[in-house]
Amino acid sequence: MPIQLDIVTPEKKVFSDVVEDIYLPTQLGETGILSGHTALVTPLEPGELRYKKDGEYIEFAIGEGFMEATQESVTVLTDICACHEEIDEDVVEAAMKRAEDALADTDHTADPSQVLALQATIAKSLAQLKLKRRYK
Asked: Hey, which CATH number is domain 3-82, 2.60.15.10, 3.40.1350.10, 3.30.1240.10, 3.40.50.1980?
């Protein structure tokens, strides 16, 4: 049975359609959602979201966020969402390099929130690069 998938970022609704199944990167690992799933709200980790539509899997790189599943729908709220065509590898690599350099220069005990922010930037960059490089 189909399930409604909505993906929303702060800028726009990225995707809204009925799909066959959904796989998301959660804090506990990859989570699969089918129609009729038990209600669930869970944090998302940077990684790959993929869904099946008409027998074909479509993939997005996503950042941090939350997912809410009901028996009929899944709503994903995430800070970034991009398909491989939208990812500029040079831009993402430069952002990751800046974050890695800043992390190396940061006092990890004095500013833990800065450390977490830099680590999140690196994780999001890695998720985007992994997806982009799969389609080279």
From this structure: 2.60.15.10
